[in-house]
Specification:
7-stranded mixed beta sheet; alpha+beta; 534 residues; Metallo-beta-lactamase, Chain A
Length: 534
């Protein structure tokens, strides 16, 4: 090795690497921090050199058993289970370094995905320490699902399918595991998402709620302080919503599926294998490309600018609504004069704000542009513009608005800018082999806080449908009517921000029975687990 290093020819592999089309390195940490398995071959004719990933046939039946010599016994157990779920029932050769020769016996059956792995003698392998992973009798095989983008919907779906019988699930995300987009901003998650988590993933519900502040109220004021609307959410919801940072939500949702997720890999192309399954082509930061085995279903959970949707369904043309949107996190907000979810109007310019865990506050602004397709003018990105935008022309601003205006002016260089937009709903592509979830399927206006909320609903429902043997079109049948209603209602609730609208009359109308009935439908119309077994 030293002459290779001295000649500058050594290449260090720290992620999935492809040495050629027939030799790939796959991280399998646990026995050592940077342990790798080696895949040899292409398509379905593949052998896998396990190294120190597995030391005994007993670990094929009980992957949670780890060696005393493992650097990280918990990590090695997670890696081993992920490895077995990925490779069992595929007809591949598993070349083990430490199994006894000849193999002692057939691995016993059981509930884990490794139950069908058989040692070399019974599988007809050529030599000691080589085990073939056969397909089950009768031609049945596990459904392989690959998730592109481990955001909200992707993480929820992956957890929902982790232990689903007959399904192998793997996830890929373009960001490193410690990097989260929008990590500095906050969000509110609606009561309907919390109900879905409570019914279907109770442990995840409890973890998310414990890390959040409750969202129990929605009020609307004028910038002068006049109250127009004040609604306890308990009147229209069965569960309280939550308030937290994006980064914390990502951390909590990704935690249970970290063992099946490969980070730092960007989708750059889609190919087909010999039997028509989709093979994602993934590229690491160093330019190395990975081609996993084919998937029966690829799921897009990679957000509003989904690479999978662009590749599978073509470019998406968003609809703009002529409203500029701003977001600002105030990390130190001990003197914030309000707590729960509130909105304040100065004409059609609107502020939305609430406190976050850890003493922070989140401020979102919005104001009309000159035309639906208009860009945000440069002068809007100044402290003077922000002060004038939300300060009443006559009279003083109320304490809440005065506090927000000062924070916007002081933090104008840290404001995140966007334009209010939505994308056409598309659920499937590729003859049902591609499924779109969350913003990849139906990016919508954020007025009622339903972006991440509907992504959670998507992940929950898609998981329930796929776990019972359904496909992408079945998910569409369950979700698209509901999503259509949410999109229309969210845009309808934005009425007070459009030029010429009356924010006073529009806010007062939100106390009318028709609006409250729609809000109740939004917050409570979540399917229960037993509905998927009918």
């Amino acid at each position: 090795m030293l002459p290779i290093i001295a000649a500058g020819q050594a290449q260090l592999a720290s992620s999935d690497s492809a040495l050629s089309d027939h030799v790939r390195l796959t991280p399998t940490p646990g026995h050592t921090p940077d342990h790798f398995a080696v895949e040899l071959g292409k398509g379905e004719t593949v052998a896998v050199l396990t190294g120190d990933l597995i030391h005994s046939p007993l670990q094929a039946r009980y992957p949670e058993i780890s060696m005393r010599a493992d650097y990280d016994q918990a990590a090695s157990a997670v890696t081993r289970r992920k490895f077995l779920e990925c490779h069992c029932d595929t007809g591949r050769l598993m070349c083990t370094a430490h199994f006894p020769s000849p193999p002692p016996a057939t691995s016993p059956g059981g509930a884990t995905a490794s139950a069908s792995c058989r040692p070399a003698a019974e599988a007809g392998a050529a030599g000691p320490g080589i085990a073939r992973l056969p397909a089950p009798a009768g031609g049945a095989r596990r459904m392989r699902i690959g998730i592109i983008g481990c955001g909200v919907a992707g993480s929820v779906l992956a957890e929902r399918l982790l232990r689903a019988p007959g399904i192998t699930v793997e996830a890929y995300d373009r960001l490193p595991p410690d990097a989260v987009e929008d990590s500095g901003t906050g969000l509110n998650v609606g009561p309907n998402a919390m109900k879905a988590l409570r019914l279907h993933l109770p442990a995840r519900h409890d973890a998310v709620r414990a890390a959040s502040l409750p969202w129990t109220r929605w009020f609307i004021d004028l910038a002068s302080g006049r109250r127009l609307f004040d609604l306890p959410l308990a009147e229209v919801a069965e569960d309280a919503g939550i308030r937290l940072r994006w980064s914390e939500l990502y951390r909590l949702l990704r935690a249970p599926v970290a063992g099946i997720t490969r980070f730092g890999l960007e989708l750059v192309a889609i190919e087909e294998d010999a039997v028509g399954r989709l093979v994602p082509v993934l590229q690491a930061a160093d330019g190395a490309r990975l081609r996993p085995r084919g998937y029966d279903l690829l799921v897009a959970g990679d957000g509003r600018y989904s690479a999978l949707r662009a590749l599978a369904a073509g470019p998406t043309t968003p609809s703009f609504h002529g409203i500029a949107m701003t977001r600002l996190l105030v990390p130190e907000a001990a003197d914030c004069p309000y707590d729960d979810y509130g909105q304040w109007f100065n004409g059609n310019a609107r502020l939305l704000s609430y406190r976050l865990p850890g003493g922070a506050a989140y401020i979102a602004g919005g104001f009309p542009l000159a035309a639906p397709e208009a860009e945000i003018p440069p002068e809007a990105r100044t402290a003077a513009f922000q002060r004038a935008l939300y300060t009443p022309e006559t009279g003083a601003a109320c304490p809440a608005v005065a506090w927000m205006v000062e924070r916007l002016a002081a933090g104008v260089d840290s404001i995140h800018w966007a334009r209010l937009q939505e994308a056409p709903l598309q659920r499937t592509a590729g003859a049902g082999r591609v499924l779109f979830l969350g913003d990849a399927a139906h990016a919508m206006v954020p007025t009622l806080g339903q972006g991440a909320t509907q992504a959670i609903e998507d992940g929950i429902v898609a998981g329930a449908v796929l776990a019972r043997g359904g496909g992408a079109e079945d998910v569409a049948a369950w979700r698209d009517t509901r999503v259509g209603f949410v999109r229309r209602f969210s845009l309808e609730a934005t009425d007070t921000m459009f030029p010429g609208a009356d924010p006073v009359a529009g806010s007062l109308a939100k106390r009318e029975p028709e609006f409250l009935a729609k809000l109740r439908r939004l917050y409570t119309d979540v399917p229960r687990p037993e509905e998927f077994s009918q």
